[in-house]
Amino acid sequence: MKKVFGIGAVVFLLISAFTYSNEFVEVTAGEEISNGLEWHTDLKKAHDLSQKTGKPIFGFFTGSDWCGWCIKLQKEVFAKEDFVTWANDKVILLELDFPKRTAQPDDLKIQNRNLQQALGVRGYPTVWLFNSSVNDNGVFNIERIGSLGYPSGAVKGKEEEKFISSANMLLKKSTTASATSAN
Question: Which secondary-structure segment (H or E) carries 48?
């Protein structure tokens, strides 16, 4: 049976912390379409899309302007056509960035830091596949599916294949566990 981790006060001290002013809506609810991928930066928007489509969230923890392995993962996996096809079919993409030289709104920093702490992310790049729900108090709960990093040991030039294979194993394991717990 899957464990549901209540993020509660740990992730979102108060749901009111996510009351956006018009100034931040454009930035934090942002979407970036790059190489055919639609990346979201706002957990609430990713959650809403996940609920609508039934797809899990693909949380990519990155240091976009300083992490060499993160940049390598983007170039050798995320930029590949096979990954784009897989991601568009299977997941909702959420970028959780921790830049050193790029300014971010405080709400976005808080959201990213809280998810980092809730999922125990200690290094970059880290990808967490998860489902989310919101309780009656507006607090997010995270149902962990599994985590991935850079696909070390992959055949050079075929890193996306190993990454996709590993992600599919996590998704299959999650689907199997859901079916078993429903019986």
Answer: helix 43-53
Element (H, E) at 133: strand 126-134
Radius of gyration of the chain (CA): 16
Highest mean pLDDT: which range of 19-23, 87-91, 134-138: 87-91
| Structural domain of 95 | 4-182
Place of tokens 């060499």: 68
Torsion sign over Cα 153, 155, 157, 163: negative
Domains in the chain, number: 1
* Cα–Cα distance for residue pair 37/135, rounded to 1 Å: 30
Is it the case that residue 63 has pLDDT exceeding 80? yes
CA–CA separation, 53 vs 50, rounded Å? 5
CATH number for 117: 3.40.30.10
Look-up of token digits 């998704």? 171
Token code pair at residue 21: 């002013």
